[in-house]
């Protein structure tokens, strides 16, 4: 059985990986075409668009994973069926579920690869891609660092700890300068929100900095003037305060961290933060549960592929098998993309919204296998 398990697993691994990378290449090409509309904006050129698209490829691979595994498993098992090798295995006493188990055992390698890609590789490369694109498009207006994001807002500088969505910032500090480039005011807020088209700072403190004339003259006698000194500091706390800024929504949207681009730990932590502050968590709940169920979805796709091969597609051509695999994979891909958001609008818990697509396809696989005997 070990030899058969290796042979079946090797075949499915080969066809699945080939399908996966083929879909990723196609998606990268479409992304590059989409980016071509921004060429010549700022310093954004073809090489930047290509680098951006390639850096997004791990995220594309992760999104296409269940679909690719379904097509690859149908192709792999279809190759074995076309050579009558599955028939020989069953004639030798191997049951359908033993063959499926052999496929699933090597499917664990694919599942582990998917988890590694989605948790460690894709979030980092996606962030790198966005930073590369933003630097090329917006130049010095945005400077990213490991400690947050620096934005140039006219004569002022703004530090943002984290961008969450296209309308919310956390840990915001505004540094205001006068015409002599002297720091006059610091505003720190726990968060900033876009409310009815205007930015609003929440839960913060305004620090006014200044110096008296006599003290300033005294300071000039002991310093070379390169160090700004203050002898008057006023701190004014606030709950909410309007923020007059030139930072545009389009630019912040480009820098936002979408839920699907976050790993499970960050999703859980940010969801807890939103919940503790009485904010909406549905989108992050959905992304969290979809990532939790992604490995299960991959296993379901392998079982579904086997149900096709042992059931209604037992004696059809390879081309027909691949076509059915592509169509079924597309149905699943769009079901995941549409069912989750629709369920949230309908008030269905995010857990069920993420669970329903793989559950429906698992029931379909069980039904087909049961009919096949």
Automatic annotation (TrEMBL):
Its main location: membrane. It comes from the Bacteria. InterPro entries: LptG (IPR030923), LptG/LptF_permease (IPR005495). The keyword RNA-binding does not apply. This is LPS export ABC transporter permease LptG. Part of the ABC transporter complex LptBFG involved in the translocation of lipopolysaccharide (LPS) from the inner membrane to the outer membrane. Keywords: Cell membrane, Membrane, Transmembrane, Transmembrane helix. Belongs to the LptF/LptG family. It is found in: Cell membrane. PANTHER family: LIPOPOLYSACCHARIDE EXPORT SYSTEM PERMEASE PROTEIN LPTG, SLR0882 PROTEIN-RELATED. It is a multi-pass membrane protein. The chain crosses the membrane at residues 12-33, 60-81, 102-122, 292-310, 322-340, 346-369. Component of the lipopolysaccharide transport and assembly complex. The LptBFG transporter is composed of two ATP-binding proteins (LptB) and two transmembrane proteins (LptF and LptG). It comes from Kangiella taiwanensis.
